[in-house]
């Protein structure tokens, strides 16, 4: 119940294409869902985040779609660029009660030039 | 100015040795964490300290011992290093834990320490 399942494990997309990464969770106590981006040799860094009372959040080319009833959320990268090539982690956490901060297993994205 | 800094960046050592990794944050955050990232990129939390108090202590061998001399520092000491300890260790910090204001829970990561045990 504490897991966050992330798919796919790896993704190859052509430049200009749409990259889609999916995550699913079980614990309904999770109430905040950030995405982190990690470049080789660097630590993860926050990319975008969403609360479950919002179905979609967009920041530039990055969009989170959230489906509360299905307990799923996804990251869409529009017009994918080679510079987007990185590992992406979804995460889920609780902001009240028993503290939980769970990361997904990561998706390695490669955008071909 | 690096927000979360770890030293050393690389650590190569022999099995059985004892080593330490240092972490400092200059963000004024109350909470600090240690994560282990294996070769498959899985990020696994090891410890969390809030205001110098141990909050999260996941199932980690007791050869690993965190030390928080103050809110800005969280060091990781590892005794009797084993081959399986080889990984990248990340330090992170956040303004708080379980805060109603979501942004306070966002974690800021250091660049990592790549530990290789031979």
Summarize the structure.
The complex is a heterodimer of chains A (113) and B (118). With 113 residues, chain A is mainly β. Chain A is built from no helices and eleven strands.
Walk me through the topology.
The complex is a heterodimer of chains A (113) and B (118).
Chain A: E1 4-7, E2 10-14, E3 19-25, E4 33-38, E5 45-50, E6 56-59, E7 62-67, E8 72-77, E9 86-93, E10 101-103, E11 107-112
Parallel strand pairs in A: 2-11
Antiparallel strand pairs in A: 1-3, 3-8, 4-5, 4-9, 6-7, 7-8, 9-10, 9-11
Chain B: E1 4-7, E2 10-13, E3 19-25, E4 31-37, E5 43-50, E6 53-57, E7 64-70, E8 73-78, E9 87-94, E10 108-109, E11 113-117
Parallel strand pairs in B: 2-11
Antiparallel strand pairs in B: 1-3, 3-8, 4-5, 4-9, 5-6, 7-8, 9-10, 9-11
Description:
The complex is a heterodimer of chains A (113) and B (118). By secondary structure, chain A is an all-beta fold. Helices cover 0% and strands 54% of the residues of chain A. Chain A has strands at 4-7, 10-14, 19-25, 33-38, 45-50, 56-59, 62-67, 72-77, 86-93, 101-103, 107-112. In chain A, a hairpin with a 6-residue loop joins strand 4 and strand 5. The mean pLDDT of chain A is 93. Chain B is an all-beta fold and 118 residues long. Helices cover 0% and strands 53% of the residues of chain B. Chain B is built from no helices and 11 strands. Classes of the chains: A mainly beta (113), B mainly beta (118). Chains A and B meet through strand 4, strand 5 and strand 9 of A and strand 10 of B.
